[in-house]
Write a structure and sequence with these properties.
This protein is mainly α. It has helices spanning about 60-160, 165-220, and strands spanning about 5-10, 30, 55-60. The chain has a three-stranded antiparallel sheet, with no helix packed on it.
Length: about 220
């Protein structure tokens, strides 16, 4: 519609008096601030197929225009409030969804944290057990090394220990005595034989002298 105001149908070819179906616009059609077909205003109307509608135009009076402005302002306010409520509702739903998602993620994070804590505890326990085993192995190795070192030192001390001179002399004397015993025995045997020979010799000489004396005595007779 080109002008703002009131439009009332004065002719409709689909009216029953003209043999139509009776699809007519009863009452006053007020303009709406909606652009339509290149015109700044529009009205809500009905129209039957192949029918013609004619409207009369009446502009608004100042009082009607004030009421219309007030009504429009109220509608705008309500529309604005409705839009704000819609946006607030959407925002609340979005926040609720975000909160639910955050809660879900927090729950998952808590479960993951518990799982990692259990894993960390198990790893710590395994590490402690491994440390204990390693300590035992190191102690065993240290004991073995100490034993080998002690044995090596003992062996080296035995090899490097000085021999006492008296003991050496005694051992040497003992060896010489053991070696000389047969010679001494031989010498003792020879000496004994010599004494026997010497003892026999004077006896023989004495006997020879006696025989000589006897011979001499015999001759003298």
């Amino acid at each position: 519609m080109p002008y703002e105001g009131k439009y009332q149908e004065i002719l409709n070819t689909d009216a029953r008096i003209y043999g139509g179906s009776g699809t007519v616009n009863q009452g006053v059609c007020e303009t709406i601030e909606t652009e339509w077909d290149g015109k700044p205003y529009a009205i809500d109307m009905v129209s039957a197929p192949l029918s013609v509608c004619i409207f009369s135009y009446t502009p608004y009076t100042p009082e009607e225009k004030a009421q219309i402005e007030k009504k429009r302002a109220e509608e705008l306010r309500k529309a604005k409030e409705a839009e704000e409520r819609r946006l607030a509702k959407e925002e609340a739903e979005s926040i609720a969804q975000e909160a639910a998602e955050a809660k879900r993620m927090a729950k998952l994070a808590a479960e993951e944290a518990k799982k990692r804590a259990r894993e960390a505890e198990e790893m710590l326990k395994k590490a402690q057990e491994a440390e204990v085993r390693l300590q035992k192995i190191l102690e065993a190795q240290e004991k073995e090394a100490a034993g080998k070192e002690a044995a090596s030192k003992k062996e080296a001390a035995v090899k490097k220990a000085p021999v006492k001179r008296g003991a050496v002399k005694k051992e040497a004397a003992g060896d010489d005595t053991a070696k000389d015993e047969p010679a001494e025995k031989k010498s003792a045997g020879k000496a004994a034989a010599g004494k026997t020979t010497a003892e026999k010799a004077p006896a023989e000489k004495k006997d020879t002298g006696k025989k000589a004396v006897r011979k001499t005595s015999v001759k003298k007779k």
